[in-house]
């Protein structure tokens, strides 16, 4: 790595100096309390104080190894002449937290921001990877604007079952449908239960976790190649130590996040997500992160860049074969980016190099079927499309490379479910008359209505259709879906039904037309009918009367603007605390 410095900032230039270095009573107290912690003066005085924000938890399998990785980060910080302090922060476990960790993304972002601002911190190492933890940590750190390095949790090892390589999430959905169709039984499910997720780390498909850690690397806030390193390898330990070394140098250079996460960096992160065939969730999170950085990024940027960005990563579920370990050994993100240099802003800085161009200079691809060449892409256009129409005036998204091609242009009658519980209870009711041509519509699952916009968007196909061999249908909702999911699922409809968006006005039997090529989603109604129905609509009662949920409901913005809290997303100065 080329970015280094021979300059050591004088102690009085460090932010932590105001806690430790003055002659007043408060500094005396801070030094005394640090002695209480067992540290000698020479261990910390005059050295950059590095906060290690660790999302480790006993109930987060994606992060269960981060307790050990924090020790490697500390090792690197000590070696570089810094003083590391580990801070436990909220863990957002995609697998266990209900109704969805998306409800708490902004809470972790607030915690990150306020911890970094209120303690004697000169720089930060952010440790996460499970879906919402990456954007939450970066949103908070961007708002504080200290030097920071992100340490991705890394993908778990590939799953195995009866000689088949399994992808977490993606194969769960596939085999659950096979169970419902009567193709496998309880014995097979028991084997799958033991084989799907067999090590620490996040999903090893190109789901939301891998997509967002890759986006973080593309932004320039990780050491090179970090996002795809398997979680349990010694290489991952070495990457954590390298990140500890790097953050001390960044503090001495005063290279804050605002100098890294520029408009060009966010454009490149979007391009990266598209070239990976990444998760639709990246749309919401990147928009939220960009706005924290004062960068205008919207749905139209994703759609514009998608039209000129090929999908080169042949990684499930957008690809048909490989998993993240294959991607890593094929060259990882540096290898992929080396194949699209004309689509990137190569002269911007990263935390490791003076320019992205320099960072990619030695990048290579070692397996052309995992990271495809430009003349043999997985898809000619980026894997996401942004839809507009009278059903989604503020936009919706679809991961069209994960759809059956026959459904990319489709008109069918709506079958409407008012909430997910109703859908679960009634999806197999024969009286609904659901056919393969029906358009399944779920509402009440958006940012406010969900609450938290749960990953309900891959609506289940009725059992009788699964038994007939149907594996995809057009499904429409104001929900999100897991990045490991697949199918013709239209997501993030904005505005959501809970605030009176057009989705609230759809009736069972209405015809809906999806046309991905035209980027259109249309409710086929006569002129004036939507307005008549809107006049009869009444808002649902508030879900929360107190607590964090009430704050969330009051402040949450819609999907097209990133689902941030309005009071956090707006620009404005927040002063550093007076340390006395």
From TrEMBL:
Residues 47-358 form the Dihydroxy-acid/6-phosphogluconate dehydratase N-terminal domain. It holds the Pfam family ILV_EDD_C. One of its GO terms (molecular function) is hydro-lyase activity. GO terms for biological process: branched-chain amino acid biosynthetic process. Residues 369-563 form the Dihydroxy-acid/6-phosphogluconate dehydratase C-terminal domain. InterPro entries: Dihydro-acid_dehy_C, DiOHA_6PGluconate_deHydtase_CS, ILV_EDD_C, ILV_EDD_N, IlvD/EDD_N, Sugar_Degrad_Dehydratases. Its EC number is 4.2.1.162. Keywords: 2Fe-2S, Amino-acid biosynthesis, Branched-chain amino acid biosynthesis, Iron, Iron-sulfur, Lyase, Metal-binding. PROSITE patterns: ILVD_EDD_1 (PS00886). NCBIfam families: PRK06131.1 (NF004784), PRK13016.1 (NF009559), PRK13017.1 (NF009560). Belongs to the IlvD/Edd family. This is 6-deoxy-6-sulfo-D-gluconate dehydratase. It comes from Streptomyces hundungensis.
